[in-house]
C-alpha cells in the first residue's frame, strides 16, 4: 500500500480505494474497506450525510409494507439486517412499538392485521417483541389521541433516538480510526483511468490530484452523474420519490412509540418521537431531480392527514411546525434510464451493486439505512472480484464495550444538577467511552431543556468531528436544528455565545 502524505515536492497521494459520496452507503463502504486493510479516501461534495442520508424517518425497520407486494425475501433480509443492527448498537438503535390505528383508510381489519403482524414477527425470526391486537376501547386507553371506535394492532421495529446523519458519522469515525482519509466539501471534478484512476478533486478554491486502484461510486441520487464522469455506465437506473416530514413544537403521544396510520392515498403515515417533540410524515411524490424542498402543498397534505387521524383538543396548524425535512428516495429500476417506469409506487428500497471489472469501479444504487451492513460486506466481495487482496475485516461496526457505562452515568450525576439520565444516555449513545473525554471534569452546562445537550458536548463535537459549518454541528452531528426552531436557537444566548467562540 502506497504512502499517501502529500509533500512539498507535489507528490500525488495514492490510495487503494476512493469512495465518492459519504452518505450511509459511502460511510459503511469506508468503514468496511478500512477494516479490511485498504488505504481509503472518502469524499463528499457537501457535508457527510448532508443530502439523502439526513432526511429519513430515523427508522430501522424490516419493511412491513413490502408484505403487501409479496416481497418476502426482501422483508426477510431487511428484518435480519435490523436485528443485526439492534444487537450491534444497543444504545444508538432502540426497539420501538408501532401502534397502527385501523381506520377506514387501512387496507385490512383487526384479524388480517393480527395475522400480518404475526407473520412479520415470524419472518424476522422473532427478533423483536411479539405483536398485539387491541379492541377499540383498549386502543383508546393505550393512546387517548386515537379516534374513538378504531381498533389497533401493534408491532415492533427500531428507531434512531438521535438522527440518521449522526449514525452515518459513526461509520466515518470507524473508518478514520483505521486510517481512512475523509474529506467533506470535496468534489470529484475529473477522472481518468489508465490502469489506475487519476482523480481531480476540488475543495473550495483548491484543486488536487490523487490516484486510486479502484473507485466506489456511492453518490446516492447523483450516482449517474459520477458514472458519467467515470465513463462507467450502469445497467440499473433510479427514479426519485420525494418524502417530507414536519417536526412539531408539541408531543402527540407521551409514550415512546410510533403512531401509524394510512393516509388518504392508502400509504403508511407516522407520528414519530423526536426527543421532546413529534415528527409527522411522510409523503410520496414522484420527482425528476434529487433537489427538493417542502412546499405549501406538502404541508397542507401532511396536516390534513394527521388531523384526520387523531382526536386532538387543539388541531395541528402550520404555526406549530418547528422545522421540516425533505429528501428523495433513490429507487432502483432495472431499465437503466428511469423515465418510463409507470409503477414507481410499488418500487421497494432494495439496493443494487454493479461492478465494472475493466475499469475497477463499483457502483451502489438505491438502498436504505437498515440494509447498510450488507452493503459494506458486498462492496468487499466486489473488490475481491477485482483481484484485490483484502484482509478479514473482523467486526468493523458496532458500539464497542459497554463496561464503563454505569461509571459514566455516576460521573455525570456528580457534574450536573440537570436531568442525569437524559444527559448521560445521550452522551453515551453518541460517543460511547469517548464520552469521558467529552465532559471532562467541569460542571456540565445543559444548553437546551428537554434535549440533554451540553456546552461541553457541543464544543467537543465542533473540534473533533470534521465540522465546517453551523449546520454540520447543529443539524447533522447533533439533533438540534431539527428539534428547535430558528427563533429558539437565536434567542438562546448561551448557544449563540458558544457558537461565536467556536467560530461558527
What does this structure look like?
The chain is an alpha+beta fold. Among the domains are: 13-52 and 165-236 and 334-384, FAD/NAD(P)-binding domain; 405-501, no CATH class. Helices cover 32% and strands 24% of the residues. The protein is built from 15 helices and 18 strands. It has helices spanning 24-35, 72-88, 110-123, 136-142, 164-177, 223-230, 296-309, 372-384, 405-415, 420-431, 435-439, 455-464, 470-477, 486-490, 493-501, and strands at 13-20, 40-43, 59-60, 94-101, 132-134, 152-159, 181-183, 187-193, 197-203, 206-217, 237-248, 257-262, 268-274, 277-281, 285-287, 321-333, 351-356, 361-366. The strands form two sheets. Strands 3, 4, 5, 6, 11, 12, 13, 14, 15 and 16 form a ten-stranded mixed β-sheet that branches. Strands 1, 2, 7, 8, 9, 10, 17 and 18 form an eight-stranded mixed β-sheet that branches. Strand 12 and strand 13 form a beta hairpin. Helix 1 runs parallel beside helix 5 and helix 1 crosses helix 8 (372-384). The radius of gyration is 23 Å and the shape is globular. Mean pLDDT is 94; it is low at 1-9 and 337-342.
Amino acid at each position: 500500500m502506497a504512502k499517501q502524505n502529500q509533500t512539498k515536492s507535489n507528490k500525488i497521494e495514492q490510495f487503494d480505494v476512493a469512495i465518492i459520496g459519504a452518505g450511509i452507503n459511502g460511510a459503511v463502504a469506508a468503514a468496511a474497506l478500512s477494516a479490511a486493510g485498504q488505504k481509503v479516501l472518502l469524499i463528499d461534495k457537501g457535508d457527510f450525510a448532508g443530502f439523502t442520508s439526513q432526511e429519513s424517518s430515523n427508522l430501522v425497520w424490516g419493511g412491513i409494507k413490502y408484505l403487501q407486494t409479496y416481497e418476502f425475501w426482501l422483508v426477510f433480509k431487511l428484518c435480519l439486517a435490523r436485528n443485526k443492527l439492534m444487537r450491534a448498537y444497543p444504545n444508538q438503535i432502540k426497539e420501538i412499538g408501532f401502534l397502527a390505528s385501523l381506520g377506514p383508510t387501512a387496507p385490512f381489519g383487526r384479524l388480517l392485521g393480527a395475522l400480518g403482524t404475526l407473520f412479520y414477527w415470524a419472518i424476522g425470526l422473532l427478533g423483536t417483541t411479539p405483536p398485539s391486537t387491541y379492541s377499540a376501547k383498549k386502543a383508546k386507553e393505550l393512546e387517548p389521541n386515537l379516534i374513538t371506535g378504531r381498533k389497533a394492532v401493534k408491532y415492533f421495529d427500531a428507531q434512531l433516538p438521535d438522527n440518521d446523519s449522526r449514525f452515518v458519522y459513526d461509520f466515518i469515525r470507524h473508518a478514520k480510526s483505521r486510517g481512512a482519509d475523509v474529506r467533506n466539501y470535496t468534489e470529484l471534478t475529473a477522472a481518468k483511468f489508465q490502469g489506475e484512476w487519476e482523480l481531480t478533486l476540488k475543495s473550495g478554491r483548491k484543486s488536487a490530484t490523487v490516484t486510486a486502484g479502484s473507485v466506489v461510486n456511492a453518490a446516492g441520487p447523483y450516482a449517474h452523474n459520477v458514472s458519467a464522469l467515470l465513463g462507467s455506465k450502469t445497467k440499473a437506473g433510479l427514479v426519485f420519490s420525494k418524502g417530507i416530514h414536519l417536526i412539531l413544537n408539541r408531543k402527540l403521544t407521551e409514550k415512546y412509540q410510533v403512531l401509524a396510520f394510512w393516509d388518504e392515498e392508502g400509504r403508511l403515515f407516522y407520528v414519530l418521537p423526536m426527543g421532546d417533540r413529534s415528527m409527522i410524515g411522510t409523503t410520496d411524490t414522484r420527482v425528476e431531480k434529487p433537489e427538493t424542498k417542502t412546499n405549501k402543498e406538502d404541508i397542507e397534505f401532511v396536516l390534513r392527514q394527521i388531523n384526520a387521524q387523531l382526536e386532538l383538543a387543539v388541531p395541528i396548524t402550520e404555526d406549530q411546525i418547528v422545522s421540516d425535512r425533505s429528501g428523495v428516495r433513490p429507487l432502483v429500476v432495472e431499465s437503466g434510464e428511469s423515465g418510463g417506469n409507470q409503477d414507481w409506487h410499488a418500487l421497494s428500497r432494495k439496493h443494487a451493486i454493479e461492478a465494472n471489472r475493466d475499469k475497477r469501479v463499483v457502483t451502489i444504487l438505491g438502498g436504505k439505512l437498515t440494509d447498510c451492513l450488507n452493503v459494506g460486506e458486498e462492496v468487499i466481495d466486489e473488490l475481491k472480484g477485482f483481484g484485490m487482496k483484502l484482509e478479514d475485516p473482523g467486526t468493523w461496526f458496532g458500539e464497542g464495550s459497554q463496561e464503563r457505562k454505569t461509571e459514566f452515568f455516576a460521573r455525570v450525576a456528580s457534574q450536573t444538577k440537570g436531568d442525569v439520565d437524559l444527559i448521560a444516555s445521550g452522551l453515551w449513545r453518541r460517543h460511547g467511552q469517548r464520552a469521558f473525554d467529552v465532559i471532562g471534569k467541569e460542571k456540565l452546562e445543559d444548553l437546551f431543556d428537554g434535549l440533554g445537550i451540553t456546552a461541553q458536548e457541543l464544543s467537543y463535537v465542533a473540534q473533533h468531528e470534521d465540522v465546517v459549518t453551523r449546520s454540520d454541528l447543529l443539524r447533522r452531528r447533533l439533533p438540534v436544528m431539527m428539534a428547535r426552531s430558528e427563533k429558539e436557537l437565536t434567542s438562546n444566548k448561551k448557544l449563540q455565545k458558544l457558537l461565536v467562540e467556536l467560530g461558527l
